Amino acid sequence: MSENKVVHYLKDYQAPDFAVAEIDLTYTIEEAYTLVRNRMMIVPHEVGRPCVLDGSAELLQIVLNGKCLSPHEYAIADEKLTIHTVPDTQFELEITTRLYPAQNKTLMGLYESGDNLYTQNEPEGFRKITYYFDRPDVMSQFTTTIIGDKRRYPVMLSNGNLIDSGELDNDRHWVCWRDPFAKPSYLFALVAGQLAVLEGNFTTRSGKEVALKFYTRPEDREKAGFALESLKHAMQWDEDRFNLEYDLNIFMVVAVSDFNMGAMENKGLNIFNTKYVLASNDTATDADFEAIEGVIGHEYFHNWTGNRVTCRDWFQLSLKEGLTVFRDQEFSADRASRAVRRIHNVRVLRSMQFAEDAGPMAHPVRPASYEEMNNFYTLTVYEKGAEVVRMYHTLLGEEGFQKGMQLYFQRHDGQAVTCDDFRAAMADANGVNLDQFALWYSQAGTPQIKAHGDYDAHNQTFSLHLRQFIPPTPDMADKQPMVIPVKIGLLDKNGASVAFKMAGTADKTEETVLVFNQTEQTFVFHDVAKEVVPSLLRGFSAPVRLDYPYSDADLMLLLAHDSDSFARWEAAQTLYRRAFASNLDALASVQPLPQHAELAQALTSALNADIDPAYKAVLLQVPTEAELWEDVSSINPEQYVCARQALLQSLASSMQDTLTHWREWADEQERNSRHHAPQEYHPDLAGVRSLRNTLLQWGVLATADLLHNIVNEFSQRATNMTHEYGMLAAINHLSDDKRNDLLNQFGQRHAQDDLVMDKYFILIGSSQRPDTLQQVEKALQHPAFSLENPNKVRSLLGSFSRNIPHFHAADGSGYRFLADYILRIDEFNPQVASRLVQAFNLYDRLEPQRKTLMAEQLQRIQKDEGLSKDSREIVDKILH
Ligand code: 0A1
Ligand code: ZN
After folding, report:
1. Quick check: is 847 catalytic?
2. Ordered structural domains, the chain, with CATH
3. In ligand 1, which atom is closest to the CA atom of 321?
4. pTM score of the predicted model
C-alpha cells in the first residue's frame, strides 16, 4: 500500500548548505497564468555542494550568474531541483516559473478565490510558486514586484513596506514591496485583486505610527470593524503584558473565503479566513466575535513569537504555535471572563486533544517524525503545546516567565530556533533546572495521576499520595515520569479554605504548586487542624487526568464552595461523569434509569448562587461523549448518546422550575440592556446570552411548550445572530416539521451571506433527527454549498463526522457516506480531506461490528491509487 513513503525524522536534521542574502521576486499576472521571476543572491556555507532547491512549479528557465543553464547542468526529481555545480562564493541564481492559480484547488501556493489572487505558504507552499530552500531556517530579505491589470488587480500587496509603484502600457501597473526583516519562505505573502480597505491606526509606545489596513470584498468592508478594534487591543496588550512592540509602519489583514485553516501570520500581511474577520450583529454570534478577537490576537502575536523568532525546522512547530496559543489565551482572558475562558480551553483540550493523544495519530508536542507536515497542525502541537507553555508560567510565576521571554528574545531575535532553546531561556533566566521538563516535548500520551489523601489528627497533617503513569502510544511503549505542577488548596467540611504549611517553609499559605516529578510521591501539609477535602489541579495546572477518591458529598462541597473556578467546575464534571456512568450501567442491565436528585439539587444551588451568568452556563455543560469514553475500549457510541441524553433529560425535568426562572431572568436582562447598548458584542451581555441559550437547550428537553414558544416568538426574539442561532440550535434535533420550516426560512433569509450559510450547514450536519443523512445529501446540492470551499466542507461534512448517532449509524451508512466524499475532496484538496479522515480515529476503540464497518471504508480509501500522501499517512496509521 505505502510504497514510496518518505518519512522525515527530527534526528536527521542537517543545517542548510546555503544562505540566501537577498531574494527579489517579480510576479507578472497574465490572464491565464502568472510568471514568477525569482532572483536570489546565494551564499554557500561550504564549498563543493550541489545546490538543491525545493519546487514543483512549471520551470521555464534557470540563469546562474547571467548564464542560462542547459538541461544537463541540473536535474529535477521528487519536487527537487539539483544544480550539480555552483560557484564557491556568492552567486546570483534567477529562476522563472509559470503558475496557473485558477486551477490550483489545493489552496496552497498561489491560488485564485473569487477573481482575486492569494498565497498560502506555510508550511511548504512556497515550493509551488518557485524553486527555493523552502525550509524555515533559511531566512532572507524579500523584495517583491507585482505587475498586473489595473482594473482586475487594482490592489496588489506583499510583505513589508510599499517602496515604489508605477503605471505601464495597456492599462497595467506595478508595485514594489520590500520587507526589511529577514524571514523564511513560509511567511511570504502576495494578494492581488479588487478589494476594499478599512483603515485605522495605532501609535506604539515608542511613538511609531502604524497604519492598520483590513482588505475585504467591497460589500464586506464594514464588517471588518470589530476585527480592527480587536487588533488595536492586541497591539496594546502585547506592549503592556509582554513588552513587545510592533516593528513595521504598516500592518495589513486580508480576508479570503477560500482558506484551509483559520488565518496566517505572514509578515505584515496576515491572510485570514473570512470567518475570523467579518462580523456584524446580524451575522455573527457572540462566540464568533470572541473567536475573531482571539484569532486576530493570535496572528498578531506571531509577529514576535513566530516571525522575529521562528522555528529551525517543522518539528519545532509548537515553539511558535504552543507559545502563541498561550499568548492568545492570556490575551482573551485578560480582556474578559478569565475563568470561563480557561474552562472553555480545557474542554477543547480534553474532548479533542486527549482523544488525539489516545488514538492512532498520537504524537509528542514536538513530533519525532512525519510524512506530510500539513498533518501536524494538530491539537497536540497547538493546544497541548500551549499547556506546556502554561506550565512554565505556573512553575516560574508571571515575573519569572517574563524574564524567560526577555532572555529568549535577547538571545534569538532574527533566528530560527528549537523548543530546547526556549526551555533553556526559561531555565537560565530563572536559574532553575528544566531538564526533566523536556519530556513534555518528547513523550506523547496524556499522563494519568492516581491520588489519595489521609489526614492525621494527631500530627495535624494531611498527606497527599500521588502516582503517575504515562500510557504507551504507538510511537513509544515505556515512558519516564514527567514534571507535573499540581496546584492545590484545602477546604474544611464547611467549605472554608484551610491554611497549611509545607515542610521547609515558614509561612502558612492557602494554595501551593506541588512539583510532582517522580513516579510516586507523597506531599505532607502541616498545621492542618481539621479534616480537609483537597481542591486539586486548580486552574487545570497540567494537561493530565487526575483521579482522586472523592465522595459525592466532597464533590458537592467543592462545587458549592471552591474558590478556584476551574476546580469548582471540575467537581460538577466529575458528578456528571458518575451520574452518566450509572445511567450506562442501568441501560446495559435493562434497569430503570436513576433520577440523580442530589446532583439536580447541587446544580440548582449553584445556579441560584451569586455567580457570573457565563459561569452558570459552563456549569451546565455535561462532558461530551468524547470525554466520557476517554479511557474506554469497545465503545458503542449509541449507548453513550442514550445515557448522556437520559442524564440531561432527568436533570432538566427535576430542575425545570429553576431553569425556567433563570431563562426568564436572562430574557429580562436582555430586554433591559437593549435600551442601553444596541445589542453590540459585550462580554457581560454575551454571558447572559450564553446562559440563556444553554437554558433553552435544557428547556426543550423538559418543557413541552417551549418548542412552540420558540417557533411563535422566533422573529420577535431573534434580534441578533446569537439569539437566532441559539434558538435554532435548541430545536435542531426535534423531528417536528416546524424545525424544518424555521431552518428553511433561516437559509432563505441569509442565502447571500456566505458565513451565515456555514451555520445553516452546521445545523443540518449536526442534527440528530432521523432524516439527517438525507438532509445532508440534499444540502450538498444547495446553491450556496461548494466542495471546493473548506468552510462549507467543515460546516456540513465536518459537523456530520462529529454527529455521533449518524456518523456511527449501526448500518455503516455514515462511514460510507463520509468515505465517498473524502475520496472526492482528496483529488483536489488533500489537506481538507485528510482532516476528515481523522473522523475515523476511533476505529481501534470501537465495538466489533462498527469496527468492521469502519475497516471496510478505511480500506476502500487506502486502496485508492491516487490517494494523497496527506490522507494516506492518516489511513495507514489508523489501520496500522
Ligand atoms: N500558522 C497559522 C496556521 C496555518 C497553518 C497552515 C496553513 O495552511 C496550510 C494556514 C495557516 C496559525 O497558527 O495561525
Ligand atoms: Zn499560529
Report:
1. no
2. 1-190 (2.60.40.1730), 309-441 (1.10.390.10), 448-549 (2.60.40.1840), 562-673+681-704 (1.25.50.10)
3. 13
4. 0.98
